[in-house]
Structures
1.
Amino acid sequence: MERLQQLESKSIHLLREAYRDFKSLCMLWSIGKDSTVLLWLARKAFFGHVPFPMVHIDTSFKIPEMIAYRDRLAREWGLNMIVGMNKDALAVGESFPAGRCDRMTCCRKLKSEALRHTLSGEWERLRMNHRTGQYEQDTDREPFTGVIVGARADEEGSRSKERYFSPRDHRSDWNVDDQPPEVWRYYKTDFAPGTHVRVHPLLDWTELNIWEYIQREEIPIIPLYFDRGDGKRYRSLGCAPCTQPVDSTASSVAEIVDELRTGKFTHVAERAGRAQDKEDGGGLESLRREGYM
Amino acid sequence: MTNVNVLQKTDAAFFAVPTGEHLEVVVAGHVDHGKSTVIGRLLADAGVLPEGKIERIRAQCERNARPFEYAFLLDALKNEQAQGITIDTARCFFRTEKRHYVIRDAPGHIEFLKNMVTGAAGSEAALLVIDAREGIRENSRRHGYLLSLLGLRQLAVVVNKMDLVDFDEDAFLAIEKEFGAFLTRLGIAEAVFIPVCAQQGGNLVRRAPETPWYNGNTVLEQLDAFRKPEDESARPFRLPVQDIYKFTEQGDDRRIVAGTVETGTLRPGGSVCFLPSGKTARIRRIERFGGDSPESAGAGEATGVTLDPEIYVKPGELMVREGEAAPHVGNLLRVNLFWMGIAPLITGKRYKLKLGAARVAAELVEIRHVLDATELTTVADKAQVERHDVAECVLETLRPVAFDTADVNPALSRFVLVDDFEIAGCGVVLAPDESGASVLRERVKRREFSWETGAITRDLRIAGYGHAGKFIIFVCPGPSRDRQGTETASELAKALERRLFATHKHTYYMSIRNVFGDFESPGADEVVGREEHLLQLGQLARVMTDSGLLFITVLPGADDTDLAKLRLLNEPNELFVVAAGECDLAEIRPDVTLRDSDSEEDAIQRITQGLNARNVIPDYSI
């Protein structure tokens, strides 16, 4: 079987396994290329349907095009779209852009904490009303016990050790030292009450695989990844204040695929433009242990 | 010089064939024998490390006054560096002109065997590292054994740290002889042995000048020499049914049977059979989102089909092609397994067995012998299987499963056992067990033997009550298929109780369907619980019917296996089966089959007539 086909099949198998076993399942969508590929794979796994909610954590500092793109696809594909944010921290200006904390603390508050409390249902969830196109407060506060995430093993060190099904305890902690075995096609799908499981269907994909697949499937991708005339494009998307574009004139999916094949970025980490990575000895490990994606 | 070129990232060819062949290779071996060094040095010599990585780690080592080791390259996680040993499998990527590699570094410490198993089970070939000076150690053998159990047949033994034995050929040959014999007994006859000095890079990518006596492959040449495992598409067709999708809410009325083709090839038009239910249908179409319906789906492909006719099948069944070699269907399995659980594998405890897409409750019936994996000698008479033991056992599943044996079709012989939310064991089915042992039957026998009853005989009770005791079971489709039907059936069962009571029969209605959740397609955590409740219900029925009661219950979604089990548990008393709606019974014929057009009164009439015909209620007086 061809490599992309292999990767697609395995990811679909994992998505179906998650859907079969987790009653309260959601998928995290950062609007970036990886989680958008994951969303596309879900549509393939379930024959055009996405039978679980998409959850987006809005830090309020995302690049504005990202939000517009999210809502457009949510409407076109009929997604059950849920948005969560750390309203309290934003209200008192506890963020790096507002100047009241450093980058790591900002990530922790606006992403990790917002995510944890949105998943558990403790904090307000906004759900898109497809009749009005507006977000409304969601009455459903059921905690999500299965969370599908687009992490890839080749992104950075700590992700290379992830499991496809990775349990998190009640505090969302990741115990790297004691991970469940994964044997053949059998994964950890049983879990004690109060815990939840992160599902990683894209673990085996590389950055190049992602772009080749976007090309093959003609997946609509956010144009921030393309050079729009200034010789710069984003290689990894995050919050505007902490995300830098790279020098590149690639202005289409095909050009990005070619660019990656030339090896231009081989010795430059994909997340090199993400400032928070550099404040933690480069590992992201402490953030990930606390639930960061 | 070596014949294999590692492609440097500066070579244009490096990325030219982006989606070519991939081979996944696990690196195993005893702790401290140098697995991480082998991989670290391989990556460094292959030139695939990020810029400045080696320099950064060298500087770090200087700060901590530790000698630089290539192993540190792999220690991406902080806590791992602190401990100085690999605790989990990590993936590394590189490629040669021939293909891409995913290298998994498997830990050698015994505490982390489950991680080693995780790395090895996903791999197609293995490097097993042995320290030339320390020689063959416990985990060298254990890892060898596990690789064989997990189905890996391509193995290169890397005899590392040759510098510590002065590159002595005899030292190398001694290990080759002893370990080669061990591997041959495991069925791995084609293992190759390579003398290596990983710290200096000798015989990894470049040839070591210190081993002129060695003419075989370098490690890198050997990687390229490994073959891709043979295509599973040529084997008999097997598709474990992962799920059934019907997204009617979104206006899609297809009922799609979804799963990943394990072996063989799926094609539309052919007749298929679902096991263990035995239901058959034709493949109408291979379904796909976007694009035309494919003409086939091969081994490893995640797919989905619509059937003609649209029969009802359950997740967990195995789809096979009619006319091809059939798998076994049974509930007694003779297996080889490796136990990873902290609590031992014991008899009398319920586990969950996952095989293909099936999830069934299972019990340990018998331990044939426990293998000392390090010596390959067997230990008989062990009462339990301890952590890190390898054992041949007999397992009984509480409902039949479809499987192949390891010698015929390994993929469908593989299973895991779940104990308390964790995968605690993994293994392969060697054969169906034909000893006839059955945990359930044993339990019933023991129960009958130990019960003492009074002087009122069955006949006296019939004379006194005017009817015999009977276990009346209403079977209907489960709520996930037909919520209304489930409700109607239980209302009817309660109406029957009222009617019987009004005519002075001794009767009792009880349903535990709420305890089951959805009896028909139990969730992951309900598989074991469901069997437990079925057992309780059967035991209860035995007492109720023996005391002369007409005991009534409703079992939404019950199938032949459930009823056979209740029949056994209720022995010597009998069942009376009322079928309401599109039931899931194949072999068992209901005593009364209700029609959709039946009113409640009609239904009760027909049930009481049936009871009368079976001499449960001799005088027709209702």
2.
Amino acid sequence: MKGAEALLKALEREGVEVIFGHPGGAIMPTYDALYDSPIRHILVRHEQGGVHAATAYARASGKVGVVMATSGPGALNLVTGLADAMMDSTPVVAITGNVPRALIGTDAFQEADVTGVTMPITKHNYLVQDVNEIPRVVKEAFHIAATGRPGPVLIDIPKDVQLEEFTGSFDVVLDLPGYKPTLMGHPKQIERALDALEKAERPILMVGGGAQHAHAELLAFAEKTGLPVITTLMGLGAFPGNHPLWLGMPGMHGTVAANRAIHHADVILAIGLRFDDRVTGKVSRFAPHAHTIIHVDIDPAEIGKVVRTHIPIVGDSRLVLKELLKGAKPLRLAAWWRELEEWRTRYPLRFKPKPHLQSQEVIRAFHEATGGHAIVTTGVGQHQMFAAQFFPVTRPRSFLTSGGLGTMGVGLPFAIGAKIARPEELVLDFDGDGSFQMTLQELATVVKYKLDVKIVILNNGYLGMVRQWQDLFHAKRYSEVYLADSNPDFARLAEAYGIRGIKVERKEDLRKGVEAVLNADGPVVAEFKVYHEEGVFPMIPAGGAAEDMIIEHPAEREEVEA
Amino acid sequence: MRHVISVLVQDHPRVLNRITGLFARRGFNLESLAVGTTHIPGLSRICLVVSGDDHTLEQVEKQLNRLIEVLKVTDHAEPHVERELCLVKVHVAGVEERLAVKDIQEAFRARVVDVAQRSLILELTGDSKKVDSFIEALRPYGILEVMRTGAVAMSRGERTLKVREKKEAV
């Protein structure tokens, strides 16, 4: 058995069913072995598409996503996707070929120092120097990727190692003395947390992506206590978006109710989130009335990194919530809820109707037509925030977006990964004309594997989010954001790939357009020509606080006292 | 504030890169770094001198602990021994200068490790402050070159950097 076959066998033993990848010189021995392997391979058209698809596969399924690429350019095309998976704590294993050992360091053809380059953007990485180490490295890589705070792990394997005769064993025992994630929360701290919540007058529960797997425990705990629940962008779906206890998303484009609740809260229970600057705004003005912040996170380094924490609980969110639930009591929050209810009813997410077709109404129409029952993926920008606002998902692992890194172009490859992970689900990619064009080559992957994904391009002809900032903060100097003069005809582009293309330009055609997308047999690219001057509101400007919230465009401004 | 931190690591390739890369990426201020093998095969020990406030130091420790190959991190806040080794090549033109340098050498309990016609190499071991003063004392005679190892440290008494101690990691 060659190293390449040993590698695939080791992957099989880890339960790998799908690999997203693209072949090339230095990984050819492994692709040769793949020819006889039961593992399914999805051939993407660019390695970036592969790593994003693997990321979405992991997020949608809860399993580890696997991507494979060749040395040098192939591996370097994974960089953005690995950084994205790192920022959003997603378990991905990347396997890259490298030049033969004797050529490493000689600037050989297609050589790059991939372990060096990916060191800061992976949870860990390996350069395999000995063929018999393959089973141990693979076992460790999957363990590290999937446990503790999940993240990407890269395995770089020189071509001659892939070709070498394997004489080792697959029975390897994990031995990682420096890696022992703490899973159980400290009982004393859990007790203190419950005590603080019981004494609180205006408590809130904030959850992030680290609670996606803890949705059942979260729901039970929230319902038992009656705590208001706020979910970050990465936490959307961890708590049902149609639940009466849900206040929405916090932060820059969060709801008035969520941001005000944080502003006025006296006790904050934060679970599986890292107080990103898009959530906190200016940290010194974040949650000024909170005398107790309880932070539950599996990564001790996140606790106290951004905000002062009074009760730190290091542990797995699901296990900690289970413990919290044991001691949970219904809290007396009637007065607090009266306030929250007022904010919620007075400031729902809304937009001023215009004669033109608007992104928000397109997304809302899809939400109504599907009952919110879909896996949503997005690119990055205005359409992403509109999707977060107007497509409240009700199930975990069903809103797949690039949170931390803000990677434009993830929408289509995320849809591919999600569809392969959960083929029975309706997968909707809400994309922007700018974002979509960053990875549109993956339409070929959609065709190749007959993936029934619905790509909804909200085409405003601009890099809308940049334009919005220019509008508000750069005196309307619209520098290099105009796309409409050179955008393709997206429907015809889709047709060129053999995918059904739909174009909707008028408000009155919205319903028909949505139905056409949802009723189409197979993949669709639907272009909705939307109003280009739309802004995402509410908005807390970068570095601002809840008090600085802008509810509507300044031209129609209605300031809100926090 | 200055902190001396000892880190026990598995001596895998690039483990030092991971640590220096972490410091560069997170903007931590590294004053010196010394590394060597230990009595246990496969384990190396690194001593870092870091400056920063309490919040920064907490992050330094936590971020170091996130590295898979890091087994143990200790901030030597407790009584500890700290030493640095320094070689100084100093210019000595004549007998008088040679005698004066010899006085400094004796005062600091340094050793002469190389004698040439117009230069001496002196070796000094001590904490970083002592090394600083030694270099300053020699400066008027014409220092030709200096090499310092960076501080190494060890807790006093029975406290040790234990290998098997459970560490919080992710």
